[in-house]
């Protein structure tokens, strides 16, 4: 016969059951916390691993861009014609950029091109490499003789390579703006063609004069195939020629209401320092640009080429 439980015994058993349930819940909580700690540790390790991978990838990209910079720098002229006194500014906005210039002694003539390819950084550098190879090809083409023909032929080649006129829906307008000068040694004349670009002529005594090119770019579906870029011809004599990309004019000032460096400031400086020394002109323009922008960052690649015939 079962002995009946006293009220005290039932209370004790109830308390034990509650304690066991509480211990069970606490153990579950402890295991849950242990799991969270373990997962947190794994997460921290994973985050550290991803951080390391990101740093390594960043270093690889940096090395690649620096290597690309050496390649782009190798595209620039390594020697200059003895018939010219010439100086330059070439500053990519990033490590590499879309600006570059060409100076080639072709015998009776000297080709000087200052080109601003679409884009900055790596995309601009890729397009400048393509454009550089196109000019190497055109230099050896007997059918390309005038400054305008260089731009027209370059436009047709870029358009063909990028398929810009194959499909009427093509929206690619990659190419370049820039200027081409051919210095004719025997006649001491200069021929010029521009694609949305001007050059500036500095007479021995007088104000700097702007010579404007066509208002069409090289490359892009907006410029028709075989577009006839105009060739301007004039006596060079001992005048100085200034060629540039729009990054020079687009330098922004430090004022509370920032303004561009602009064409008027450039013309004033060129007229003030017209002393037939390209290096001094380059230096004075660089000082004026630095004073104008102060601490403002650059906004574009910059190229400036100043030369005269000896």
SSE layout and pairing:
Blueprint: H1 7-75, E1 84-91, E2 99-105, E3 109-117, H2 121-139, H3 147-161, E4 176-184, E5 189-195, E6 198-202, E7 209-212, E8 232-235, E9 240-244, H4 246-249, H5 262-272, H6 278-293, E10 302-309
Antiparallel strand pairs: 1-10, 2-3, 3-4, 4-5, 5-8, 6-7, 6-9, 9-10
Helix pairs in contact: 1-2, 2-3
Can you tell me about this structure?
This protein is of the alpha+beta class. The protein folds into 2 domains: 1-75; 79-309, PPM-type phosphatase domain (Phosphatase 2c, domain 1, 4-Layer Sandwich), CATH 3.60.40. Helices cover 43% and strands 21% of the residues. Strands 1-10-9-6-7 form a 5-stranded antiparallel β-sheet. The chain has a 5-stranded antiparallel β-sheet with strand order 2-3-4-5-8. Strand 4 (176-184) and strand 5 (189-195) form a beta hairpin. Helix 1 (7-75) packs parallel to helix 2 (121-139) and helix 2 packs across helix 3. The longest helix is centred in the first third of the chain and has 69 residues, at 7-75. The chain is elongated.
Number of helices: 6
CATH superfamily of the largest domain: PPM-type phosphatase domain
CATH class of the largest domain reads: Alpha Beta
Cα-atom Rg, whole angstroms?
34 Å
The low-pLDDT segments are: none
- N-to-C CA distance: 132 Å
Characterize the biggest β-sheet.
5 strands, antiparallel
Query: What name does the CATH topology of the largest domain carry?
Result: Phosphatase 2c, domain 1
Can you give the helix content as a percent range?
40-55%
**Anisotropy-based shape:** elongated
Named at the architecture level, the CATH assignment of the largest domain is: 4-Layer Sandwich
For the record, the count of structural domains works out to 2
Number of strands: 10
Average pLDDT over all residues: 87
């Amino acid at each position: 016969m079962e002995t009946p439980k006293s009220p005290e015994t039932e209370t004790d058993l109830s308390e034990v059951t509650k304690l066991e349930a509480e211990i069970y819940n606490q153990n579950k909580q402890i295991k849950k916390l242990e799991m969270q700690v373990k997962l947190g540790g794994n997460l921290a390790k994973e985050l550290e691993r991803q951080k390391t991978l990101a740093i390594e990838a960043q270093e690889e990209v940096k090395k690649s861009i620096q290597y690309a910079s050496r390649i782009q720098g190798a595209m620039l002229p390594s020697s200059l014609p003895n018939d010219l006194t010439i100086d330059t500014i070439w500053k990519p906005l990033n490590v590499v950029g879309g600006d570059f210039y060409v100076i080639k002694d072709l015998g009776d003539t000297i080709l000087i091109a200052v080109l601003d390819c679409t884009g900055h950084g790596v995309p601009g550098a890729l397009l400048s490499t393509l454009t550089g190879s196109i000019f190497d090809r055109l230099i050896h083409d007997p059918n390309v003789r005038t400054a305008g023909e260089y731009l027209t032929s370059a436009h047709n080649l870029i358009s063909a390579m990028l398929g810009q006129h194959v499909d009427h829906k093509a929206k690619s307008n990659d190419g370049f703006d820039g200027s081409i000068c051919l210095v004719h040694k025997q006649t001491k004349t200069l021929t010029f063609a521009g694609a949305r670009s001007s050059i500036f002529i500095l007479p021995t005594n007088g104000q700097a004069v702007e010579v404007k090119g066509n208002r069409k770019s090289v490359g892009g579906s907006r410029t028709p195939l075989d577009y006839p870029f105009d060739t301007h011809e004039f006596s060079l004599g001992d005048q100085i020629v200034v060629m540039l990309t729009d990054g020079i004019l687009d330098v922004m000032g430090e004022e509370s209401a920032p303004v561009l460096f602009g064409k008027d400031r450039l013309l004033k400086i060129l007229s003030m320092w017209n002393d037939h020394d390209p290096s001094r002109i380059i230096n004075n323009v660089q000082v004026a640009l630095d004073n104008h922008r102060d601490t403002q960052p650059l906004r574009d690649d910059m190229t400036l080429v100043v030369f005269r015939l000896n």
